[in-house]
Write a structure and sequence with these properties.
Radius of gyration: 32 Å
Distance between the termini: 123 Å
Order of helices and strands: HEEHEHEHEHEHEHEE
Number of helices: 7
Strand content: 15-25%
Length: 237
């Protein structure tokens, strides 16, 4: 065949047709469905997989630098390292012989910090079963014989102790709860005349607001959204 007999196909308007490219064959519907199913299962596995738990550490005492796991529980808000360090600087590093109660124990960081510094008895009260189980594990791991873990209502536990029998009461209620006033009322009765109440709250408490409970502010620190208070009994007269 001569070259003159070969003609290029033309399109309307005189444009030359471009050579046909190889187009991949369309995937069968069942193949698409298989890929989509695998992607959906993979996504579901990621959503269902628990996120890695965090850690905090004990700041001082015999268990200094010991890391404590932080379970991911709704509303759980461990006291930051900086705040705990400041609190125990206020209290002094040696709590030998002290009797303490952590009414909203959570991770146990506050109460275990007190036990690490020599407290004679530390009662950790927590209502969440998962957190209570974790606290028991920590108690065993540290061989913390001075620590007692109790599942229950922290405010009720405060009401059950002998009046003026505690050197330190630790209050860290959920910030969106209505437990601040009843907790302060119970703590004021349970703490000794020369003892301390630690309060963590989303806003500052003034001496005027604390007057109905017979408490006054001894120290105060604001760290981010946290207001940390060290309170004492108001002196008579």
């Amino acid at each position: 065949m001569s070259r003159s007999s070969l003609r290029l196909e033309t399109l309307p308007g005189g444009r030359l047709a471009r050579p046909t490219r190889n187009v991949p064959a369309a995937e069968p519907d069942d193949a698409k469905e298989s890929k989509n199913t695998k992607a959906a299962k993979s996504s579901a596995r990621k959503d269902a997989a628990p996120q890695a738990a965090g850690e905090i550490r004990i700041i001082g005492g015999q268990w200094k630098r010991t890391r404590l796991p932080v379970a991911q529980r709704p509303g759980l808000r461990p006291t930051p390292d900086r705040v705990r360090e400041t609190l125990f600087n206020w209290l002094g590093q040696d709590l030998t012989g002290w009797h303490c109660l952590d009414a909203f124990a959570g991770t146990g960081a506050l109460g275990l910090e007190a036990a690490s510094r020599g407290a004679a008895a530390v009662q950790l009260v927590e209502n969440d079963a998962t957190l209570v189980a974790q606290l028991h594990k920590l108690q065993a791991r540290l061989a913390a014989t001075a620590v007692r873990v109790q599942r229950g209502d922290g405010i009720a536990a405060l009401r059950q102790v002998a009046p003026a029998s505690l050197h330190l009461v630790l209050l860290d209620p959920p910030f969106d709860s209505a437990w601040f006033e009843p907790a302060l009322q119970a703590a004021a009765k349970a703490v000794a005349a020369d003892g301390f109440v630690y309060l963590e709250a989303p806003q500052a408490w003034t001496d005027e607001a604390l007057a109905p409970f017979g408490l006054v502010v001894h120290r105060h620190l604001k760290a981010g959204a946290v207001h940390a208070h060290l309170l004492q009994r108001r002196l008579a007269g």
